[in-house]
Design goal:
Blueprint: E1 2-5, E2 8-12, H1 46-50, H2 57-73, H3 83-92, H4 98-101, H5 108-117, H6 129-142, H7 147-155
Antiparallel strand pairs: 1-2
Helix pairs in contact: 2-5
Amino acid sequence: MICRRGGEFDVVKILDFGLVKNVAQQHSRDLTRTLRILGTPLYMAPERLRNPADVDARADIYAVGAVAFFLITGRRLFDASDDLAMTTQVLNDEPPRLSAVATAPVPGELDLLVQACLEKKREERPQRVTDLLEALDALALELRWSQQDAQAWWATFPGVRPQENGV
């Protein structure tokens, strides 16, 4: 969750909804079982929707891409009237490019990185979270983001402002 804390914008708050899978063990007691999907389809990787038991860390990389798309563009990756239509879009539709949707210019490297996170086939996404972190760290060195930048960005989306302390 992105929130404000002490007046500081873009503070990340990690929440645990109990939707985790122990990837260190071959047979884990995943909360999702066959034919039962828990979570928000908009942020779920296609493989999670196809087979909830067959996921790994690359599903989280997809979710990071979907969240990044929203944070950068101010709009949802896919828009549908219900979860079934949303699931169909996640499974079949190509996600739009950041650069085609964002109201402000998007650096090419960031556009490509988010697009890579949103690949339908997990083999085509960054393979490890550390790969993604390294790419983001390199971008952060080039693309500075200040509290003034964050405040101005959030002001352009009055209906989506982060709440103080994320509450």
